[in-house]
Amino acid sequence: MPTIFSKCYECNHHSYLPLEHTDNDNENLEKMEILKEYGFPTEIAIKIIEMTHTYHKCDYCPNILCNIHKSHALRYGGAWPYIKCDQCIWDEIT
Question: 22 or 59, which is more confident?
């Protein structure tokens, strides 16, 4: 599920948990806190982090993946050189 920091379909974010919870993606939260220490407002810090991501489209559906999840998709998707998101892999298995 996309986060406030990333449009990636597979980045980990559970809206029913606090943003700081360990089940949510905390790497970007740490980056945001560092930017805020340097005087950036929260909204600007989020936009800066959002702009640092590179996105790739799944070749089988409209889902968007970040570089980390693209690498995961290429490694485990079984469709090299095509990018296959976890949802498409799961649909193929079931």
Answer: 59
